[in-house]
Specification:
Blueprint (H helix, E strand, L loop, with lengths): L2 H5 L10 H28 L9 H22 L1 E4 L4 E4 L3
Antiparallel strand pairs: 1-2
Protein name: G-protein coupled receptors family 1 profile domain-containing protein
Pfam families: 7TM_GPCR_Srh
Keywords: Membrane, Transmembrane, Transmembrane helix
Amino acid sequence: MDVAKNYCSFETEHLGTTENYKLALHILSCINTPLFIYGAWCIIFKTPAKMVSLKNVLLWSHFFSALLDLSLSVFVVPYVLLPTFSMYALGF
């Protein structure tokens, strides 16, 4: 009886396969995208008068944060291999 086969099966874990991992990140990005749009709407239309000078900075910061999040969760999809601290991109 091989103990490693019984206890180290990565295929049965929730995010053990790369396809499940990609699917989870794509679902999260579908949830995050409307929240990013709502956040931009709040910055554009609901910024108080005292913060008008910071509106552009907030909007650019929000835009690049959303762009980074979407690029990592949709376009790059990094798959990290922790014992060796290595990773590879799964792509779109």
